[in-house]
TrEMBL record:
This is Transcriptional regulator SlyA. InterPro entries: HTH_MarR-typ (IPR000835), MarR/SlyA-like (IPR039422), Tscrpt_reg_MarR-type_CS (IPR023187), WH-like_DNA-bd_sf (IPR036388), WH_DNA-bd_sf (IPR036390). Coiled coil: none annotated. Keywords: DNA-binding, Transcription, Transcription regulation. Pfam families: MarR_2. It comes from Pseudooceanicola marinus. One of its GO terms (molecular function) is DNA binding. The keyword Transcription applies. One of its GO terms (biological process) is response to stress. It comes from the Bacteria. The keyword Transcription regulation applies. Residues 16-152 form the HTH marR-type domain.
Length: 154
């Protein structure tokens, strides 16, 4: 796909015009392609797309609170609670009381969760290579640097 055209099914092209540089449109197209490319991964590992990030963040931050996790993934607390409940029901995470505050639940991966994240990691790296294969390592670093600058500018 060029910057300003998208191929139609009959081989002709649709002009994207100003949408070629509209972040909402471009990220929507990218998201649709990502969902298409990652479907087999989610099925193989028995997880939903949002669960991958949650499991990996808990693995990277044992004892993280639901509030901290909700902020990291930009989810409302109610949506996160639903996802955490499902992960706990599936035996992938554990809630543990932490310190003197009995209201605080520290999130940890269970043994099964640790194994699931380890099994996913290789496939996650392979997916990254497939999705970003058209970019050099330097271009990938630059892409993520620019994306995170936009995110942090809010």
């Amino acid at each position: 796909m060029s910057e300003e055209k998208s191929e139609k099914t009959d081989g002709s092209e649709v002009s994207l015009g100003h949408l070629a540089t509209d972040i909402s449109f471009v990220t929507r197209v990218l998201r649709a392609q990502l969902l298409e490319q990652t479907g087999d991964f989610f099925e193989k590992h028995g997880v939903a797309s949002g669960q991958v990030a949650l499991l990996n963040l808990i693995a990277l931050n044992p004892g993280v609170s639901q509030k901290e996790l909700a902020e990291a993934v930009v989810l409302k607390k109610s949506a996160l609670t639903k996802a955490i409940n499902e992960l706990e029901r599936n035996g992938l995470i554990e809630r543990r009381k932490s310190g003197g505050d009995q209201r605080y639940n520290a999130l940890h991966l269970s043994e099964q969760g640790l194994a699931r994240v380890a099994a996913m990691r290789t496939d996650m790296l392979g997916l990254q290579d497939t999705i970003l294969g058209v970019l050099s390592d330097a271009e990938r670093a630059q892409l993520f640097d620019m994306i995170w600058r936009v995110i942090r500018s809010r």
